[in-house]
Amino acid sequence: MAGNDIRDILSISRQGSVERSSKKKRTEPAKRPTGMHREVFALLGTSNDLDPPPLQKSNDKGLRHMKQLFGNRKVRSWQWKPFKNSARNDNLSLLHWKRCDDTSTDYPFAKYSVKREILKYTDEQYNGVLQQPGWTRANTDHLIDLANRFDLRFIVMQDRWDKQTHGARTVEDLKDRYYSIQYRLDKLRDSESEKPKRPLYDADHERLRKEQLEKLYSRTREEVEEEEYLIEELRKIEIRRKEREKKQQDLQRLIKAADQLTETGSSNKKKKYRLTLR
Questions:
Q1: Interhelix angle 171-189/203-217, nearest 10 degrees
Q2: Among 156, 133, 130, which Cα is nearest to 141's?
Q3: Fewest CB atoms within 10 Å of the CB: 75, 96, 100, 187?
Q4: What is the pTM of this model?
Q5: Quick count: other Cβ atoms within 10 Å of Cβ 186?
Q6: H or E stretch including 54?
Q7: H or E segment and range at residue 204
Q8: How far apart are CA 172 and CA 168, in angstroms?
Q9: Burial annotation 34-69 (CB, 10 A radius, 16+ → b, else e)
Q10: pLDDT digits 0-9 by tens, 70-117
Q11: Which tens digits make up the pLDDT trace of 136-158?
């Protein structure tokens, strides 16, 4: 055993031993530069040892590396060429950038301009099946003209309707007249079949639907809260009704089980009685 260990056991102080005081190095916090916001300075960190990460050096030579990515093909040439849109009727010519090997002359997005097939009728058809009270031939022709101009957009058609010449009309009136003409023409062309292809437009139902929708949106906050309260009460009543039905079913099940037990017990007694008589 070493002498130092014996001294430690006997609590004898060491002679000649020098107590070393370990002093921790205190790092002073970095001062925030003048003019820099506190939030920005907090992002830099509190330690002075945090150095910014070094930039990664790349040995790639920019132009050569880009050629490796895009290939060594020759760049296609483009020209500023005129074009026309077949969906327009004014023969307008515009300019855009186009590849030299592209020989098409029409605008590529003209194929998405699909127009509806608007109704057409003759004098014989109008006089035969298309007459309707409240609509003259001039009113009907004006309606078909607006349908051709605005591609059957009834909101715009009602806005551009000539009220001074043909009187005021609603969107439902225009739809009702247009689809009634369509229905009658289909019925005339498909006279062999019993039913036409398209159903008849119900203007009264559409007016009622819009009226109900207007009432729904014009409700006050108190009315909405009252309706929510009534719906919640109805839900509670429905839950209680289902619980009562479930209890009645359980009770009927117990009654049936008790009846079956009594029937089996009475049949067993009758068998025992017969055996005793024998």
A1: 150
A2: 130
A3: 75
A4: 0.51
A5: 16
A6: none
A7: helix 203-217
A8: 12
A9: eeeeeeeeeeeeeeeeeeeeeeeeeeeeeeeeeeee
A10: 566 778 889 998 888 888 888 888 899 998 888 887 888 888 888 788
A11: 999 999 999 999 999 889 999 99
